[in-house]
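hey m, so remember when u said the tokens were messed up on ur end? i reran from scratch. heres the input so u can diff it against urs
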Amino acid sequence: MYSLELSMRYSPFPLSIQKKEFEDVQQIYDEIKNAMNENVESSNLIELRCDKVQDKLIAVRAKEVISVQIYEKSSVAGGAKRPGFSLDIDS
């Protein structure tokens, strides 16, 4: 299962959806990235649907997206690894 997480302007909490196939989440990632690069005057509405929670739909304006990331949900790790970038500093 792959998660796509969006950070939104003026919102402290990210929005996320989950997809079963990497190709599906990669396509959505590319669509959002392209919409973020378009003219700021246009306010494209992006609708996202989650595979894990069938009734979950999210619609966002592309100009309000600050960042987007993909990560794989692993049941083996038990949630020990957080998504995003981190520095492991050994003391």
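this time it looks ok to me. The chain is about 20% helix and 35% strand. if urs says something different then somethings off w ur setup not the seq
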